[in-house]
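Standup notes
- DV: blocked on the single-chain target, sequence here:
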Amino acid sequence: MKTEVAKMDDLEFRRALLADPKSNEAQVLKAIANDPKKQAFCNELKLLNQKMTDASQISVPDGLAHRLLLRQSMAAHQQSRSRNRVIQLAMAASIAFVFGLSFVFWQQSNVLSLSQNAIAHVLQEGDYALGSNEDISIQQVNLKLARFGGEFTSQVGQVYYANFCDFNNVQSLHLVLQGESGKVSVFIVPHDQPYKADNLTEGKWTSQSYDLSRASLVVVSELPSDATHMKEKLAKSLIFSA
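- DV (later): unblocked, structure below
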C-alpha cells in the first residue's frame, strides 16, 4: 500500500481532486495527510465547490418570469410603435408629395392668360404705379431690362414708373408710359418658351400682348387705341440678345 501511495504524483493527485473534491480514495487521503500543500489545495477546492453549490441554490425572485415577459412585451410594443411611426411619416411624406404635384397641376390648369394677368395686376395695384410721376430715362429702363438680356433701341416717350414685379410667379418689368391719350401700363415678361399672345377687354380696361423671342410684351390701357399704338411702338424697339 505504501508503494502505491508513493507512486501518486502531484498531477495524479490534482486530477483526482478536480474530478471529486470530496474523494475518499485511500491514496488521496494518504497524500493529503502527508503533504500540507496538498491539504491546502484540497481545502481550496472544497470551498470553491461549496460556493458554486450555494450559488446554484439561490431561489428565483417571485414574479421574475412575469416581469421578464412583461419587459419583452413592452419592448415588442415599442418596436411596433416605432415601425408604425416610420410608416406614418412615410405616408405623410407621400401625401405631401402628391398634394404638391396636384397643386402644381392645379396651378398650371388655372393659369390666366397674359392679358388676364396684366389687367388683374393693374386692378390690384390701383393708383400705386399709375399714380407715379417720376421722370425715368431710357438708360435707367435699359439697366433694368439688362437683367433679362433686353433693351430698347430707341426712345419710348415719358416713363413715369419702372420697377420689377411678380407677374404670375415670373419676375418681370413693370413700366408706366405716356400714351397718346393717357398713361399706359406695360409689362415685359421674360420666358424660355413663347406664350400665346392675346387681346382682352375687361370692364374699362383693354389689354394687348405680343410675343418676342425671349419675352412677352403686354400693354394695358383704358383706351384700345392707346394699347394698340403702344404695343406696336414698343415691339419695334425692344430687342433681346441671343
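- Follow-up: The two ends are 120 Å apart (CA to CA).
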